[in-house]
C-alpha cells in the first residue's frame, strides 16, 4: 500500500502562507512529518492562490524544499502542465504526475510527459462531461486511459487509475460505484494498471472525518486499492493501512507490523 | 512469431553478508532474483557449503562418517583443517561440551577451543552452541570475545536469548544466526529486534530451523521461498541470507542411521544422498549456507552448485 502524503498543498492555510512568503520551514516540517508517518510519496500542490504564471516556479521550489529534507519522491499535483513539467525538471527519483483526465487533448500532453521523464501518471476516470455516475462509465474511461498507456509505451504499472471519490454526505451513491471500479480496473490489462484515490474527499464537509477516511481506506484496500493520497499525519489512518496490508497478505506478518510499515 | 522471455521485475534484493577475513573470506547473498535465474537478475555469489567440527569425539555417528575424519576426531583444530582439505567453504564448530546435562564446560573453555580452531584454518568460522538457550547466551559472548575481529558467524540466537549474543557480536565484529522455529513471522520479528540493538541487517543470517528430507522439509522449503520473495519484493527484514543446518537434521533420521535395511539399499550411499537431497532442495528454495557432515555430501552439493551457477541468458 502506497501512501501519498497530502499535506503540502496550498489549500491548507499554513502552506499557502509559506508559499506567499517563500518560507521553506512549514514545507520542510510537513515533508519530515509525513516521511516519518509512513508516506512513500509527497503530494505537492501549489494551491489555487498562486497565479498560473507563477505556478511552475512555485512547484519547482516546493519540490526542492521538500526533497531537501526527505528522501521521498513527489506526486506533482496541478492542472497546469507547465507547473508539472517544472517540477519534473528539478525532481529527484521517480515522480508521479497528478493527473490527467480521459480527455484526448490532456492525454496527449501528459502521457508523453510521463514517458519522457520516466514518471508514473495518475489518470482520472472523468472528462469534460464531468464525473461519471456509475462504475461502468468510470471503467469505460479507465479503458481509454489504459489504451493510451499502451499507445505511448507507458508501463501499465506506472498508470494509476483514480476512480474519483466524492463526499459521502452529498454523493453517497458514488461510494459503492468507486469500490466496484477499483475491483474491475484490475481486469482491464495484464499486468493491470494500479489504482489510487484521493481519500480525504470521501469525508469533505462531514463530521468525524478521520473515522470516515479510515473506514473507507480499509474497504477500498479490500477491493484492491494500491495507493491513496491521504492524511499520513493521522497515525490511526496509517495503522489501518498497515493492518489492512497484513490482512491482505501483502506483507509478511510480524508483531512489529505497525513499525515495519512506516520504515523506509 | 517470437517468444518473449517472461522476466519478473523485482523491486528489492537480498542483502550480501561477508564472513571471515583475508583471502578465504566468504560472501553470501546479494541476489536480485530467485535461485539460479541468471537471466532475470544478478546473482552475486554462489551458495556455499560448510562442514561440521565437534569439540569432542561424537558418540552417535555411524562408523563410515567417523571414518572420514579418522585420527582427528579428538582434536577440533586438526579436524577443522581436514574439513578445509575436503573443500569446505566454511567450518562450523559445534560446542557440544558446554551442554549443562553433559560435561557443562565453562565459557572460557569453549572460547579456548574456538580460538584454537580459528587459528588452525583460514576459512570463516561458524560457532554453534549446544542449543540450550541460557547456556549459549552465557558461552557465545565469551567466544565472540576470544574471536574478536575474525568476523565469525555465531549462533543460535533466539527470541529468548538473542540479547547477550548480539551484544557480543556487535562488540567484536561478528555476524549472528537468528533462529526461529519454522515460523516466518517470528523470523521477521527476531530480525527486527536484533536490528533494534543496532546490529546492521547485513550481519544477520536467518536459520529457519529446517526439517530433513521426509521430516518436514516441505515446511522449510516454503518458508525459505517466502523469505526470498519477501526480500525481492522489498521487505528489508526478510532480506538476510539463509543458513541450512542440514547435517544436524539428516543424521537424526532413521534412513541415515539404520545400517541394516535391505529395502533401502546401502547405508552410506543412502545417508550421503539424504544430506545432498536435503541441502540441494533447500538451496533451490533460496538457502545460502548449507552445513553438512559428510565430505562426500559436500562434494556432490558443490558440484551441483557449480553447474547451477553457469549462467543462462536469453
From TrEMBL, chain A:
Belongs to the vitamin-B12 dependent methionine synthase family. This is Dihydropteroate synthase DHPS. Residues 1-248 form the Pterin-binding domain. PANTHER family: METHIONINE SYNTHASE (PTHR45833). It comes from the Bacteria. It comes from Ammonifex degensii (strain DSM 10501 / KC4). InterPro entries: Dihydropteroate_synth-like_sf, Met_Synthase/Corrinoid, Pterin-binding_dom. GO terms for cellular component: cytosol.
From TrEMBL, chain B:
This is Acetyl-CoA decarbonylase/synthase complex subunit delta. GO terms for biological process: pteridine-containing compound metabolic process. It comes from the Bacteria. Coiled coil: none annotated. Residues 46-310 form the Pterin-binding domain. It comes from Ammonifex degensii. Gene3D superfamilies: Dihydropteroate synthase-like (3.20.20.20).
